[in-house]
Amino acid sequence: MNKTVLKALIPLVLFLSLVFLLYNGLGKDTRLLPSALINKPTPEFSLPTLLTGKTISKQSLKGQMYLLNVWASWCPNCRQEHPMVTELARQNIIPVYGLNYKDEAEDAKAWLNQFGNPYTDILVDRQGLVGIDFGVYGAPESFLVDGDGIIRHKIVGELTPQNIQNELLPMIEKYRNTVKN
């Protein structure tokens, strides 16, 4: 094979490889991002609450199963998800704690005044450092934490009737009585 043909084939092979990789990635559901924290303890945290300023830590939540819902006033999908969070909290199936993520306190309070506050309490993660520890990609996301402080499930994106029914509720039933420590 002469050098001219070889030089022409190299860019073509590289281009086709790139097209294949991009095409392969387009079919992936970004909500199915794996979390390295599933079945591992929650990261350490100690954060002020939005409305009272008291501190809530990992230790203070130990002994109860809860859902940690990551949200922000600037997040359009959080607005869309909010009725589902409200309904879940209203049904008293599980305590729902909010993690207000990279938000301004006044904006978050105004948002809650407008749309309602379904949360048992709201932790404030102004810089997003706790979110980083949890592996948050963005808002909204939700983490199911069992009574031992182990992350049992993560939902990336909005809570929907489908993922509540098919994912969250079965996991709540499975891990409801798992407090060991």
- Alpha-beta content class: alpha/beta
Apparent shape: globular
- Determine the mean pLDDT: 88
Major sheet strand order: 1-8-7-4-5-6
SSE order: HEEEHEHEHEHEEH
Q: State the low-pLDDT regions, or none.
A: 27-31
β-strand amount: 15-25%
Overview of the molecule:
It is built from six helices and eight strands. With 181 residues, the protein is of the alpha/beta class. The protein has a single domain, classed as Glutaredoxin. The strands form two sheets. Strands 1-8-7-4-5-6 form a six-stranded mixed β-sheet. A two-stranded antiparallel sheet has the order 2-3. It is globular.
How are the SSEs ordered, and which strands pair?
Layout: H1 3-26, E1 40-41, E2 46-48, E3 55-57, H2 58-61, E4 66-71, H3 76-90, E5 96-101, H4 105-115, E6 121-125, H5 129-134, E7 141-145, E8 150-156, H6 161-175
Parallel strand pairs: 4-5, 5-6
Antiparallel strand pairs: 1-8, 2-3, 4-7, 7-8
Keywords for this structure?
6 helices; globular; 181 residues; Glutaredoxin; 8 strands; six-stranded mixed sheet
What's the short story on this structure?
The protein contains six helices and eight strands; from the N terminus they run H-E-E-E-H-E-H-E-H-E-H-E-E-H. It is α/β, with parallel strands linked by helices and 181 residues long. The protein has one domain (33-175): 3-Layer(aba) Sandwich (Glutaredoxin), CATH 3.40.30.10.
